Amino acid sequence: xxxxxxxxxxxxxxxxxxxxxxxxxxxxxxxxxxxxxxxxxxxxxxxxxxxxxxxxxxxxxxxxxxxxxxxxxxxxxxxxxxxxxxxxxxxxxxxxxxxxxxxxxxxxxxxxxxxxxxxxxxxxxxxxxxxxxxxxxxxxxxxxxxxxxxxxxxxxxxxxxxxxxxxxxxxxxxxxxxxxxxxxxxxxxxxxxxxxxxxxxxxxxxxxxxxxxxxxxxxxxxxxxxxxxxxxxxxxxxxxxxxxxxxxxxxxxxxxxxxxxxxxxxxxxxxxxxxxxxxxxxxxxxxx
Length: 288
What we know:
By secondary structure, the chain is of the alpha/beta class. The chain has two domains: 43-121 and 235-285, Periplasmic binding protein-like II (D-Maltodextrin-Binding Protein, domain 2, 3-Layer(aba) Sandwich); 123-232, D-Maltodextrin-Binding Protein, domain 2 (3-Layer(aba) Sandwich). Helices cover 45% and strands 22% of the residues. The chain has helices at residues 2-30, 51-55, 58-70, 81-90, 101-109, 141-150, 163-174, 191-201, 209-215, 251-262, 264-272, 275-278, and strands at residues 43-50, 72-79, 95-98, 113-129, 155-157, 184-186, 205-208, 222-226, 233-241, 284-285. The strands form two sheets. Strands 1, 2, 3, 4, 7, 8, 9 and 10 form an eight-stranded mixed β-sheet that branches. A two-stranded parallel ribbon has the order 5-6. Helix 7 links the parallel strand 5 (155-157) and strand 6 (184-186). The protein is globular.
C-alpha cells in the first residue's frame, strides 16, 4: 500500500516537472527576438585636395575618423591645387583642401566656394643635391633661385599648377627670371613623384616639408639647402563648393567635413601626426 502511494506521488511529481519545463520552453519560444536595424548605406563625399596631404599620409589618419563618425565614404581626388580649385569651379567636387591662398580667395569671390576655413600650415623648403653645385644655403630663397639660374644647375618643377608650383613661379617672378632650357625640368606630376625625379636628375626642387619628411628616406641624393624664411609659410584651407551655384554637390557632408577639420580634437591629431615617425610635426594646427 505504501509502496503504491510512493509510486503514485512520484508519478505526479514527474508530470508536474515536465509541465513546468514545457511552460518554460513555450515561454522562451514565445519571447520575440529584438530586431537589429541594418546600418544605413554611407553617403559619398568627393574631396579634391593637393597631393601633399595624400603623399604625407595625413589623410590616411584623418579620413577613417571622419567616415566612422559620420557614416560617410570619402572619395579622394589628389591633384595639384590648381586642378582641385578648377574641380570646385565646375562643381565636380563637394569639398576642397588646398594651399594656394590667392587662388582660393578668387574662387570664394566668384561664388564657387563658401565656408573657407584655415586648417593648418607647414613650410616650403628648397632641397638639392648633396654636393650642392650652386652652393646655396641659409634662409634667402630669392638669392638661392638667382644663383641656381646663374650657374645653370638642374631645377625640377612640378609644372602642374599646384600650390607648390604657384609658389615656385612666384619666386621666379620676384627675382625677374623666366626659367627655361634643358636644366629646367618639368614633371607635370605630384610632389612625391617630382621629388623622385629631382633625386634621379641631381636637381634642386621646391617642396613642402611634410612630403619631404615622408619621402626623405628614399631620396638618398638630396638634402635641405634653404629653409626658415618668413616668406616660405605654406598655409592650407578647407572650403565647401557652393551648393547655391552647384546644386549637385553634397553640401551637408561637405559642411560636416569643414567643421571636422577645424574641430579641436582633429587639430590635435593634425599636430601630432608625424612626431613618432619623424621626430617632428608634419603640419601645425592653425585655425581662424
